[in-house]
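Re: duplicated header lines in exported structure tokens

Our pipeline writes sequence and tokens for each protein into one text file. With two proteins the header for the second block appears twice in some exports. Here is an export where it did not happen, for reference. First protein block:
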Amino acid sequence: MADDHELPTSPTLIAELYFACWSAGDPLPLRPVLAPDVTFDGALGSTRGPDEFLDGLAGMFAATTANEVLLRLASEQDVVTWSELTIADKAPMQVANWTHVKAGKISAVRVTFDPRPMLS
């Protein structure tokens, strides 16, 4: 992404970028669409700010074997993506990812899933 004019601003396009970065295993293209006070809260941890957010994603992306998007629902500021996530050789998990977008930037991500397959 060369400049801000090429950055996605709609919640749906930003969610598509988020999951494309996940598929590529590279969270860095997300930095320009992260709000300075972006937060992440999920079953296995929380982050505050872009640096922690990207570090957390890098770890999750590296451990991911597959993440198939099954459904995406969007409104003017929110996107919920339902996916089937596989970590290493563990059983797939159904994951709900809620991304909140303000002024073209991700301000919050909330993720919920049953982590038991990861822990076994």
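Second protein block, exported in the same file:
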Amino acid sequence: MPIVNRIAEFSADMTAWRRHLHTIPELGFECSKTAAFIAERLREIGVDEMHEGIAQTGIVAIINGQGEGPTIGLRADFDGLPIIEATGLEYASEHAGKMHACGHDGHTAMLLGAAKYLAETRNFSGRVALIFQPAEENGGGAGVMVEEGVLDTFHIAQVYGIHNAPGFVEGGFYTTPGPIMAAVDTFHIDIKGVGGHGAMPHETCDPVIAACGVAQAIQTIVSRNHYALDDLVVSVTQIHTGSVDNVIPDTAYLNGTVRTFDPVVQDMVERRLGEIVAGQAASYGVSATLRYERGYPATINHAKEAAYAAEVAAEVAGESKVIADAGREMGAEDFAYMLQERPGAYLFLGQGESAGLHHPEYNFNDAVAPVGASFFARLVERAQPIAGA
């Protein structure tokens, strides 16, 4: 079964919704315009319940099926990124310095499309909970929604989400059982030395040299403290120090990211970072402090639900366009918090060749929105068929 015919009929609506959302990107939890637009569409669609103001601007909408049954959760994130858009599109961002550079506008349009179809047909038992979530990019909105009781309040038994994938075949899907995306941590290192004249370094305790030493030593965590066949990334991404060519500064700052799947490895990295920072500070005669912030946990698909989702995806896209055991990658996703609490799965939907995620020239491919909406719709209909149908 390809794209659901009824969904194909209103694909132009999804395109219009998505492109409007693209013009009004908002950040974090402060997504009031986006939430208002979503709520207006849901009222037009005719959902049975709508609960607003969850995690500040999040929404949960309920569609009742025919007869008793469980509740299945479908999630879309809707926040943007602090990026200056460079697409030149007629529907480019109207909010300076903000952009939908990760396709969350498309995710929202797909879930609205599925909602429209499910509300019209109700060819399922139980209920569907449509979860529209802010603050995926920064803030862990999924975790906040879980903390505020979304999964318990609405008796959600299982939960699914989709992310678009530039560079993967248009309209194809991939997923995997078990870990699919990494945990993400952040480290901050502040170095305090003694500055002075660049021509008289012997009178200083140079934080610049110390910062270079710390950055180089950090690379040994992956190469010398970790089993090579396990996945681990430790990247120094920022070094800030100094302001002029002939002055040795007083301070330096380093920042970076850690990506892991195993909590034991995560603990090792934090410990080794502390040891390296202390040791390098002592060797260069400076003081240094480490702040290690644990972020989103690893996104771990449940095996049974991942296999089921891949079957549904193959029904919609064709078996040749679905990879059910694609393996894991080092990006991170706060949908992990929902999968910690309920069985479910996370999938990627190919959008063909395009600029990459978080790129200023990125744009969601509207042609794949009906594919994603059809996947959500068939996921529900197959998981919760009407008794006797």
